[in-house]
Amino acid sequence: MNNDSIAANIAKVLQQVSNAVEKYHRRPESVRVMAVSKTQQAEAVRAAANAGLVDFGENYLQEALDKIHSCADLGLTWHFIGPIQSNKTRPIAASFQWVHSVDREKILRRLSEHRDPEQAPLNICIQVNVSKEASKSGVAPENLAPLLALATELPNLKLRGLMAIPAASDDFDTQKQACDRMAELFRDAQSRYPSMDTLSMGMSADLEAAVAAGSNMLRIGTAIFGARHR
Ligand SMILES: *Cc1c(COP(=O)(O)O)cnc(C)c1O
């Protein structure tokens, strides 16, 4: 994928988002687009940044650290969105501004412990397994409450929101149902913890349903960068 097609893809995605924002009466500017750059080269990140994107999501630690390093001049915001092994919390806490894929207490504690108090607090979203798929990461909705409580208590962390990957479906109504369920969990959590302002939901294939349900952070990979490199 060359730089011109990345810029053209971003324009297309932003148009899709703005159509959905209008259709579902969302506030303009209320929906952020994160570019999911996993498996893409640093040059692709640079092209997306040149096209105006600021938020980048990564799933694999080592390649992410390489890109964060080589794109340090761009002033980007990096989000860790992949499964977290507990022996990787130190570099994650040091190099990312956000972590969206926290689904257990041990990881929360370690991220808090490893975040330098001199840095701004690490922004945390708790991942919820909203479709209750056996194969998926994320805490079950009924076990969410203690994780939220712990995230607000621990130092060096800031609880920002919830993240979900609803079960894949080609059907808008099915997508919308899962997104609505997630939005309900989010509103409930937010009423207890008003610092929560982020519902991280919606990928290339379900962004319209996510915007309709109230997502305010979309995580878009394929629609921006094309097929992944592995
Ligand atoms: C890969 C990935 C995305 C992006 O998915 P696309 O379908 O390529 O837009 C979003 N969120 C997470 C957690 C991912 O792993």
Strand-helix topology:
Blueprint: H1 3-23, E1 32-36, H2 42-50, E2 55-58, H3 61-70, E3 77-80, H4 89-95, E4 98-102, H5 105-114, E5 122-128, H6 144-153, E6 157-164, H7 172-192, E7 198-200, H8 207-213, E8 217-220, H9 222-225
Parallel strand pairs: 1-2, 1-8, 2-3, 3-4, 4-5, 5-6, 6-7
Helix pairs in contact: 1-2, 1-8, 4-5, 7-8
Organism: Congregibacter variabilis
Keywords: Pyridoxal phosphate
Domain Alanine racemase N-terminal: 23-228
Give your account of this protein's structure:
This protein is α/β, with parallel strands linked by helices and 230 residues long. It has one domain (3-224): Alanine racemase (TIM Barrel). Helices cover 43% and strands 17% of the residues. The protein is built from nine helices and eight strands. Strand 1, helix 2 (42-50) and strand 2 form a beta-alpha-beta unit. Helix 1 (3-23) crosses helix 2 (42-50), helix 1 runs parallel beside helix 8 (207-213) and helix 4 packs across helix 5 (105-114). It is globular, with a radius of gyration of 17 Å. 41% of the residues are buried. Bound molecules: pyridoxal-5'-phosphate. Residues 36, 38, 59, 81, 165, 203-205, 219-223 line the site of pyridoxal-5'-phosphate.
